Amino acid sequence: MIPLEGGGAVNSGKEMKKNKTLGLKIVSVILAVLLWFYVVNQGALNTASNSVKVNLDYRHLQAGLSINAPTTVNVKLWGVFQETNDLTASVDLAGLKEGSYELPVYVEPVKGAMFTSVQPDKVKVTLEKIKENSIPISFDIRQNPPAGYEMLDIKAVPEKCIIQGAEDDVKKVSSVVCPVDLENFKDFSSFSGKLLALDASGNPVSNGITMIPDTVTVYVVINEKMSSKKVSISPSVSGNLSEGYSMVQAVVYPNNITVIGSEAKIKDISELTTDEIDITGHRESFESEKQVIVPEGVHVYPSNVLIHVEISNPDND
After folding, report:
1. 175 lies in which domain range?
2. Does one domain contain both 80 and 145?
3. How many other CB atoms sit within 10 Å of the CB of residue 107?
4. 24 φ, ψ to 5°?
5. Do 236 and 179 share a structural domain?
6. Which DSSP string corresponds to 137-174?
7. Which of helix, strand or coil describes residue 170?
8. Where are the alpha helices (DSSP H) in the chain?
């Protein structure tokens, strides 16, 4: 067969038309992608990639089980996106019982991101039955009461804390303490106290355990420091004897008593007196019980004393 003249030109024209159509298709795809970027991001056309550390959310954990697994994954995004604060990664534990599993990580779609990858895309998860231990709550007094005051009593409600978690984690907890600052408290007070779980070396334990409760109500009684000492008693005598009679002496039994009170209130007390004893009209010696007069806020023991008043009779002189 003899080729037609000009056939080469016909074939060349067809190739050019084919290439032009392919080029238009490519341009159309590029324009579509750019338009998609524009709509999604309101005209922001700067593409980027970003790697974000995201907390892992373990969903549908069955009651009575504790979990030992990674807490974060790295998520990488490609595309035009503005915020990653709402980025979430999760692992579904629905229907899983005690044991070890390798489970996929799911990442919620992010607006504006064309592609998303997560590392690792699977995590090893160990589920164990929850163990618990009840531990009495003790106190760590970090600041003492104000000067001149002392703590008389302190109590937590409830008095015990339940530690829950995997057996190995629960065993780490040796004590539960409530740090307390009493520097600004007086009289009877109550306040909330945060609990700390500690190991045998006194180091905090937090990973893998749950504290029930983790906060308690603390009741504390603070009073002034009390001191005591012995002081003498001087009787208070009033009135006048009949003419010719005289009072020889007034003797107190006991002649000294114990005073109890704050250091500030009793430090200057060296002697106390009694209610007045009236000698008017008496012609013979007599005895009378009288109360000791004490300053406010001070207590004495005994509070009453016996006063023996000796009177001189002129007929006996």
Report:
1. 131-224
2. no
3. 19
4. -65, -35
5. no
6. EEEEEEEPPPTTEEEEEEEEESSEEEEEE-HHHHHH--
7. helix
8. 7-41, 167-172, 263-266
Q: In CATH, what number is assigned to the domain containing residue 196?
A: 2.170.120.40
Q: Choose among 46, 53, 52, 34: nearest CA to 81.
A: 46
Paired tokens of 44: 């922001």
CA separation for the pair 221, 180 (Å, rounded): 13
Do the Cβ atoms of 252 and 306 come closer than 8 Å?
Answer: yes
3 state DSSP class of 244: coil
pLDDT in tens, the chain (317 residues): 444 444 445 555 556 555 666 666 666 666 665 555 555 444 443 444 577 888 899 999 988 888 888 999 988 877 655 555 677 889 999 999 989 999 999 988 776 666 678 889 999 998 888 888 999 999 999 999 988 888 989 999 999 999 998 888 899 999 999 999 998 888 888 999 999 999 999 999 988 889 999 999 999 999 888 889 999 999 999 998 888 888 899 999 998 999 998 888 888 899 999 999 999 988 889 999 999 999 988 999 999 999 999 988 776 65
Q: Which of 224, 248, 279 is the last residue of a domain?
A: 224
| Total domains in the fold of the chain | 3
Convert 270-280 to b/e letters by CB count within 10 Å (16 or more is b).
Answer: eebebeebebe
Distance CA 229, CA 270 (A): 9
Residues 268 and 258 in one domain: yes
